[in-house]
Design goal:
This protein has 207 residues and is an alpha/beta fold. It has one domain: P-loop containing nucleotide triphosphate hydrolases (Rossmann fold, 3-Layer(aba) Sandwich), CATH 3.40.50. 59% of the residues lie in helices and 12% in strands. Strands 2-3-1-4-5 form a five-stranded parallel beta sheet, sandwiched between helices. The chain is globular. The model has no long low-confidence stretch (mean pLDDT 94). Bound molecules: adenosine-5'-diphosphate, cytidine-5'-monophosphate and magnesium ion. Adenosine-5'-diphosphate is lined by residues 7, 9-15, 133, 136-137, 180, 183-184, 187.
């Protein structure tokens, strides 16, 4: 099972995913985190390219990101196949894919080559609040893109390139939209209710 977690930069995708991991036995894969790790990896042929795209708030070419996600998914299966994670038997697994797909080409490619998402969690939040959160995060994150100049570029990319992905899945009735503006705990309560409802629908499909 794959759930895409989308939303503007700073909407709280990573924060919310972290709590869902233990509650629903998900493996959380943040495309941005995977790209940053690859950028730092010694000997990576993509290091310089990723660094440039991230600072400019652009979407890294999909081949790179999809490969990283596939590798991470394989590693998660390997790690868990001999453990007692109940949702992970018989080659099944649960993934929260955070910050992906960010562009239509990656959405279509991943849906076809890897697996289509069961649904999409979309965290909606006004830019003014996102800006505040990102500048605050930037005080300690060490990220090269948590500064006002990069943030503006990321907002532009989000509206022009990533929102069409959300709209695409919305037209298919696969988006669960969540207001990400309230405090973390409030958002979490709403996300849990949405998850429980979505799991109930999934379960009824397999009965
Ligand atoms: P994303 O992964 O969507 O970019 P993060 O989860 O990293 O977002 O959150 C961005 C920043 O905002 C972090 O510093 C986080 O602590 C903070 N944050 C997350 N959710 C909320 C919220 N509901 N209200 C206020 N601040 C939040
Ligand atoms: O999701 P996060 O904010 O961590 O992403 C940081 C950056 O990583 C994005 O602004 C973008 O440059 C890159 N990224 C990407 N493709 C994705 C996810 C992230 O190019 N699917
Ligand atoms: Mg994040």
């Amino acid at each position: 099972m794959v759930v895409y977690v989308l939303g503007g930069p700073g909407a709280g995708k990573g924060t919310q995913c972290a709590s869902l991991v233990s509650e629903y036995d998900f493996v959380h894969l943040s495309a941005g985190d995977l790209l940053r790790a690859e950028q730092k990896r010694e000997g990576s042929q993509y290091g310089a390219l990723i660094a440039e795209y991230i600072r400019e708030g652009q979407v890294v070419p999909m081949e790179v990101t999809i490969k990283l996600l596939e590798n991470a998914m394989k590693a998660a299966f390997e790690e868990r196949k001999n453990s007692d994670h109940s949702g992970w038997t018989n080659g099944k697994g649960r993934f929260l894919i955070d910050g992906f797909p960010r562009k239509m080409d990656q959405a279509l490619k991943f849906d076809e080559d890897v697996c289509p998402a069961s649904f999409v969690l979309f965290f909606n939040c006004p830019e003014q609040e996102l800006l505040k959160r990102l500048l605050e995060r930037g005080k300690t994150s060490g990220r090269t893109d948590d500064n006002e100049e990069s943030i503006k570029k990321r907002f532009k990319t989000f509206i022009e390139t990533s929102m069409p992905v959300v709209d695409h899945y919305r037209a298919e009735g696969r988006v669960v939209e969540i207001d990400a503006t309230p405090p973390v705990e409030t958002v979490h309560t709403v996300v849990r209710a949405a998850m429980d409802a979505a799991f109930a629908v999934e379960k009824s499909k397999t009965l």
